[in-house]
Amino acid sequence: MTGFAPSSMDKRWIWTATIGMIIFLFIQVFPVTGQLFATDVQNVMTRSQAEAKALNWAEEKFGIPSDQLQKTTVTHLTNSDATGYFSKNDFFTDYDKQWSSGTPTDTYAVELHLREDIGRLLLFLNMETGSLVAWEHYGDKPAQSIESAGDKESGTQLAAKALQYASFWGVNPEEWKWDDQPVKYGTLKFVSTKGDIGEAKLWLKVDMPPGYSALHSSFPEWRGGSATYGVDLPSSFLDYIENQEKWSINLSMFGFFLPQIILFILAIVYTGTHGGHTSYRRGIFLSIAFFVLHAGLTFNRIPGLRAESWDAGASIGDNVNLIVNLVTFAAMALLTYFSAVGGDGLWKSMGRSLWPRWKEPGYGAAILKSVREGYFLAFILLGAQSLILLILEQTLGSFASSDATQSMYNMSIPLLLPLLAWCAGISEELQSRLFGIGVFRNWFVAGARKLLGREPSNKTAVVLTTIAIVPPGLIWALGHVGYAIFPVYTRIIELVLMSFLFGWFMLRFGIMTVIFAHVTLDAILMGMQMMFDGLPWDFAGGVFSLVMPGLVGIVIWWLHRAIRSRKETGRPYA
């Protein structure tokens, strides 16, 4: 067995990377760069700014002093169905003109837990201006119902009274009209006078406590009341989304989670049977780094976990969410470790060395080479991904919705987002590429050997290796169908095609290069996301995200050089 000796890049690779970068810029970057220079775009409030603004509203509009609060949470919420409908039908320009200011699809939901068993007051704020756009109180309602209180009032009178009540909190009565439907459970529903967007109809619901009168107090009774809005969408679109989400759940369960359990067992078996070809120290550092990073990022996105429970209609505590996620990531870290040992052992048993070892003299130089080549390969991947998604958008009508669970606005420290790139690059490449391709190639070659009664030819081995990329690539793709991109098979097609590139790059340049390529790909996409999210300091954070993989590679190179120098000379490297 010879040492690690990957192929080198020639000018053709560099030219291909240049073309890939140009494609990526023209398809994904240039169409949105105007946002960076537009003079009328407002920045998005931070979570702490949203909390401070909500406390001001609570005191100013509801008469609630700060000493009456037990706890405050801030969560970014989004109407994913509405954003999906606008995206699918290219209605966002109309939405920005008609609805976005007073009734945005994305809000900061600030939940105020009140003392004296008053319950919870939920304030919805415009994320850019901080204006109060909706509110709702959860707690005991007054004993008298609005129906009995309003027996002597007509529906028209009640509707006018409800709009007067809602106007105290900023609702413009001229923008709403009663829908002429009977009062249900004390709630009156209004429709927007601004007009519909396609078949989407904007509505307002006002729950007015009985006995309300504008003359009673400077603070109208708000306990048991609410003023909320939403969008009625075509039933055909909602049925389509519901069906797609069911497919997503089934594909994730039977196409990803169950195969992952099987691969976990296989990784343990191959670690035991092929561990002699490698070292059991293989992957320990990377697996630990994966878990530590993911654990830290899980604490960082507690509001995102809260949004996930909110979307599911469940009231799951933050601690329960944390425990479930940490246990899941611990299992993934173990799978990553066994994939590293079993995968490296498998490839070496087949005569291939795809992973340099720390003890090798040229390890530091190999890391720098992997970083450099990883950037070039990342641009090839970005170009290919951009083309694939553009073709799927044009042919399948693919569209994206919003997902508050993955939102940067639901991160305590948004600047930590780029670290997620390392979690994906480490785990997915060791599991799906190093071990996944290795185990299927081993099976296919062994099957051909048994069928032919001899070693398959080099050409046959190449074909079998190419085919071996498909099963783990498909499993990897099915693990991404939970993203808010429709139809759900969009990501399956995209990532199965991308898996051929990832697999080819690993076989040609080694596992470290493809890890750096994967990390760089994600870091560039995350960096671009940060540059356009409107939060303070995130433009600088986005720039840092672009150079982060290179900086990490330089640090590893320096550490390897310093440690080897210390061992060889007995003193620190200077």
Automatic annotation (TrEMBL):
Domain of life according to the entry: Bacteria
Transmembrane feature ranges: 12-30, 251-271, 283-302, 322-347, 374-392, 461-483, 495-519, 539-559
A GO molecular-function annotation: metallopeptidase activity
Keyword terms, alphabetized: Hydrolase, Membrane, Metalloprotease, Protease, Transmembrane, Transmembrane helix
Signal peptide boundaries: none
A biological-process GO annotation: proteolysis
Descriptive protein name: CPBP family intramembrane metalloprotease
Source organism phylogeny: Bacteria, Bacillati, Bacillota, Bacilli, Bacillales
